[in-house]
Batch of 2 targets.
Target 1
Amino acid sequence: MRAAFPFSAIVGQEQMKLALLIATVDPSVGGVLVLGDRGTGKSTVVRALPALLPMMKAVDGCRYGCDPSANGTRCDECQARALHVARGKLPVTDKRVPVVDLPLGATEDRVVGALDIEKALRNGEKAFEPGLLARAHRGFLYVDEVNLLEDHLVDLLLDVAQTGENVVERDGVSIRHPARFVLVGSGNPEEGDLRPQLLDRFGLSVEVRSSDDVAMRVEVIRRRDAYERDSTAFMAHWEAADEAVRARILSARKKLPTVLVPDAVLHRAVQLCVDLGTDGVRGELTLLRAARAAAALDGAKTVTDAHVQLVAPMALRHRLRRNVLDDGGSGTRVSRAITAVYGTS
Amino acid sequence: MVAVPVTVAPPIDPSVSRARSAAALSVFAVVGDRIGGIVLRDTSAGAQEWIAALRLRLPAAARIFRLPSSATDDRIFGGLDLAATIATGKPVAERGVLAEANGGVVVIPLVERMPVATQARLGAVIDTGTAQVLRDGVHAQFDARFALIVVDESDEEVSGVAAPLRDRLALVLDGDVRVDASLLPTADVVARARARVASVHADDEVIRGLGGLCVAFGIASERAARYALWTARALAALDARDEVEEDDVTLAVQLVLAPRATRMPPAQEPEPPAEGNEAPPEPPPPTRPRSDAAPPPEPPAADAPPPDESQPEPPNDGQLEDRLIDAVSAALPPELLAALLARAQRPSQEMGRAGTEKESWTRGRQVAARRGKPDGVRRLHVLETLRTAAPWQRARVRVRAEQGQPVRSLIVERDDFRIRRYVERAGTSVIFVVDASGSAAAQRLGEAKGAVEALLAESYARRDRVSLIAFRGTTAEVLLPPTRALARARKLLAALPGGGGTPLAAAIDAAIIAGIGARRAGTLPVIVFLTDGRANVARDGKGGRAESMRDVLDAATQFRASDLSAVLIDTSPRPEPMAKKVAEALGARYVPLPVVDARAIAGAVALARETA
């Protein structure tokens, strides 16, 4: 298969790119929901991630790709192995961050995992064959047309995404394994409603529109055409730009734990949530986490009002009360509230 | 609002339509797999003729696969090979039609009957060129690059091709798709064009023109321009040229961009757009890209242009684009402008398609089976159950033998059970939102009740569900949740007291919740407001006309965004400007009560029902 279109070559879609970078720097912001026009490169951005993201350290031989340093949240096998090696240090290998596509029509057994039939046959052994959730561990799980996915699968995904653990009880197999992933859902509201429960369980929500700027549209066509005609040359050309983004992600991850949020900034951010009447503390937490990640990506040591304002729409727009469906008005309401709290926007 | 591409009505002159159809066929033969494919909106006979003509122009090796719209997922995308699985005792994957058709052509007749989710999956296969199977113990991936022909025989105004698929198919022929065979290339010419097409060069002016056209005609998808470019290349290649010429682009934009137009660029030239412009007022005129006014800026610093970049933008640029706009406009039949205008004022008809069907265990159209326990209502899906049990047979036999249990030829366990599921078409849910405040003077309320009763009688005949929300004082209250028990609705309505403030914003909020609830329950909601629109109680329950109206308009905006079909019946003695304003904000049909009778109201509601 041809290499995916490079992340840096994607024209525009800044909000979506920022949301994914934030989720990469701090996966605890939760999933990313992308709604909008068809053919605007939603899938292209997601499919560009594997090549873009820095490699991760994983326990060598672990089929879930456990984080060697995450004692306590590793899978049972890793925990058991750690008891038998010197100082609990498991062998480490480099692994690509998984970006797993969940196609519509996938059945539950393939998603959560099931009994490994071949092993059962060969050795009479009850072994677990991991599903998509296991493959997505520490990476991204992407569902295009998320609003067309069957309800019971969506519930399952949201449940696992929230708990970070996949529990399987079927076919005589009883197993649990870590499944921490960023759920990325994309869709077009025209194809069917998004259930309200679904909306606010995504951490960030961005709206993707195609640009009305002719120069940008022309650039999209040029690059896409260059890629389709000679993808090798095109990839080589953009590798340096992708490398720069990669360096930015690594440095942001390192900085993140030390990024400070001044009281005044925090105060105004909370005020913004209060003004918008977002339900619960989830909105405030997400807003702060996203702002810290944005600051870290900026190379800043402290979060400023500007960072909060930058991420407020994506962190809050889908949490507005009396607004069970996404609509054009929610973005406007957020920017109105920003103007009220920060004066200018 | 998201604009939806309009299907272009057939050109009037048959010779024009046949020439266009021939051009589309030639392009399809050359680059069908690079541009997704084609939608044929015609009778089956017309489409068959088109496909037969295509067959003669394709390379001898290219095969055409027919995929019935009723085909199951495993036949389309691949799945478990039941026989091989039982024979070998381990899950064996089987290719679906899309993988078998790798390198060929796939035809889907009656595509309008194919479920939206299946069409969306097809779209994903076109994007990635691979069919992924993740079901029934199988995890496999197959190459699936093909050119797709979908035949849409739906006679409705709305396309039967679901938007996710339609966006991925470059070409659309509507009405008479028959071709003028004298204009078709020979198979040899097609073969040579296929070999040449990837190296055909297109000037940067062409690319700039395509970008400008997409903006001018309100085409959101970025695929459109890419497809138009390949179409132009194919036309050049068919003519044995290595350079795209203006005629190629002109025809390409007529074939690919015209059917996707969602708005018209402002009238050509005559003078610079002045304030007192006489142009049609709606939809909001798109800003026609004038390259001399705004030269395309260089892309951001980090985004260095790709290797095969050309020189700085020529100064006289934009002329090709003007000619192309003329070309696209000429390809649009005159009715289109009216259609585009109407569309701008009307919510998309495809909204909530998924919400118009509801799941059922007993009747309707069959959809994918699900794990579950059969009981009196849920019925076992025997084949799916066997499919699920198949991979385990060897293992189970072995386990049983080891445990000394009798071994049957087929061992099915509880986890294997799959139950049948269906979806059925939804009925309508009429939600009455009745203003019982003091401002809606008593006798007007009486008349409103009369109108509602007339509607109830009609709803009864149609087996609609009805629910009732009343608002007065400080709140809106759901008097009656959705029901078919219309007698109760009538009784409650008759007993409804009047008086108090007008909390209209709260009523609209309640209507949104009820409307979305009805949609979620699988019915099509139609909301009927009966009010004079003179709100004087805000959402917080406090008085104040200005505050209240602001809340009303805010609520109305959300209502409109929820895309609910609505009618507002103005119950004031004389048509009330406020009520009209609220109706506009809601996106509702406005019907002043004084000038119409109950029948006219019923007519307005019937109209709203049709567009729900």
Note: Chain B has 21 helices and 18 strands.
Target 2
Amino acid sequence: MAEQLTGPIIRVVDLVSHYGERRVLNRVSLEVQAGETMVIVGGSGAGKSTLLRHVIRLERPTSGHVYIKNYDVCHIPEEQFNLLRRKIGMLFQSAALFNSLTVEENVALPLRELTQLEESTIHIMTRIKLDLVGLSGVQHYMPAELSGGMKKRAGLARALAMDPEILLFDEPSAGLDPITAAGIDSLILKLKLAFKMTIVVVTHEMASAFTIADRITVMHEGEVIAAGAPEEIRNSPHARVQQFLHRVPEGETKDAQAHLRALTQSGRF
Amino acid sequence: MTGVLAFLGRNTLGLLRYASGLYDLAHQTAYWTFVAPFKGRGLKWGSAVHQMVLAGFNALPIISLISVFVGMVLAFQGAYQLEKLGAGYYVAALVGVSMTRELGPLITAIVVAGRSGSAFAAEIGTMKVSEEIDALEAMGLNSVKYLVVPKYLALLLMMPCLTLVSDLAGILGGAIFGLYQLDQSFSMYILATRDALVMRDISTGLVKSVVFGLIITKVGCYEGFAVRGGAEGVGKATTAAVVISIFLIILADLVFTALFYYTS
């Protein structure tokens, strides 16, 4: 997979996805260029995390395509996708550290399982990654002994273990205090500058989005409603985008009759 | 009427979906245990041994104790009938044959389902809830290979061993009864047991125990992977793992016993 890449490194085309009967993604299209930081923002349930899960094939779409480096993620065989997947690191919302392993073992796991490196090399690489995220000295702790911010950092160190070209973040600042969240943001900026990684971040923190993004995509109810540079998003005429930017709460129900009906009729019978 | 039909249809479909899910998991596990290692894709022997200690070795005391009690109970109940016929001598045969053919494998399976089946569901379910399964998959590490295969191997090897221990403990329980109630010496009781048992009694029991082990791993792990929605989901999965495995164990027991009966 060393061939020269032309065009965007991640390309999502007309992606439609359902959870059971409910449609969570409705013809979503998105392009991420190599080396850029794309931030996907939107309210809860807008489908942004689902979109991220599709990129790494944790979900299968109803229709549409996801291309990474021009490989169709949904249709290439498992073996080939596993090779591609090594170039992608993902930080999950809950950090998803393996609770039965120490921090160091967590970071070393992909190296131990997916490479033939010497144990001493793995040890050094693990230390380097932990140092990179500012977690030197806690390598022998169990995940349960770490704070939320430290867990995120450890999860990031694990995502970085295989030196990925693409880094995916699912709500990196969710559940963190503003100072810790800002710390994660600056870490993302550092990675972007130091390693020229392609970074996709899903978040609902607008401040964080404007800090790190090269481009922003705004999603609402499973659809992309705006995309562009941070300035374009800030000046977007779209009502939903403005509502999101200025933290305006959802309006009261206009149709009093419908509201009354919804309250008085029980859902099931 | 349509309500009844809809109810039946929905439940049948649900049952079929469950069965196909179990089959799919069994298929993948078999691949990662018996095919993949020969293609150079490795096997997690370390965690398999760890699981053997957890599910096998650590279950020894409780399985032995229960089996001794059941052996004694069998002897009491048997003697109650047999002594009327003056056939107290045959208590040893009754205990020996029932333990090896039926109760040894069954007691072992039920204890293991309660101890380990629930643990499998809870472990995998918790990992599912905390996105650890997703993290494994995202790294390109197969969750069946890493989580199911070690448990599968452990039970495949440990169930027959535990069953043998249970058989012996049950016979020992019967012997204790014989010693005090029937005035048989220990060696006499064992001789009587040996005369009554044939190899087939023991081997059919061991065959059953392997099948029970498969059921426990498959149902436990399947319930774990199927967990939705937080801690409550894990609790439900744990309960379901035990209830469904015990049900399937008894069902399989019936099928195998009938099979062995008609083919003997």
Note: The mean pLDDT of chain A is 86.
